[in-house]
Amino acid sequence: MKLSKEKVIIAGLAFGLAGAAQAAPITTWQVDVNTVFVQDSVNPAGVNFVSDTELSWGTAATTAGNSGLIISDSPANTLVDTNGALVPNVSITHRNNPILAGSASLLSVDIASTLTLTPFDPSGIGLPAATITFGVNFFETPNSPAGGICADGTPNNAGLN
Known about the structure:
about 10% helix, four-stranded antiparallel β-sheet, mainly beta
C-alpha cells in the first residue's frame, strides 16, 4: 500500500497535535480528612470507647472528671491550593485530669486517618481514598499531688504541663 505525501503529513500533524493536548494543572483541591480511633486497638480493655472520636479512662480524682483523648474537627473538609500554605484539619486533645491510682489508664491505641483528594479547580474525578493508621503509645502521668513530675521531667503545672 502506497501512502500519499499529503496523508503522511496529515497523520503526522494529527499525532503531533494529539500529543500536545494536555489537561490543565489542578490549582485547587477539595481535601477531606476523616480521623477515628480504631476500637479493636484500644489497650487495655478497661478504657472506655465513648465514640470513634473519644476515649476516656480512670476513676476521677477531682470534679474535673476522668482523663481522655478527643479527636476534634473530624471529618474535616476544606479547599487547598496546589503549592499553597499548610492547612490544618483535625486535632487531638488530651483531657488531662487527675485519676485515682490503680484505675485503668490508656496504654496504646491506633488512629486511622483517611484522606480523599478531589480536583476542585478545574473540577474532576476524585482520587481513591488513602488511609494511614498511626500507632500511639500513651503514658498517663499522675497529676497529683502538686509538685509531681511529668513525663518530660518538668514539675506538674510548669511550662507546657
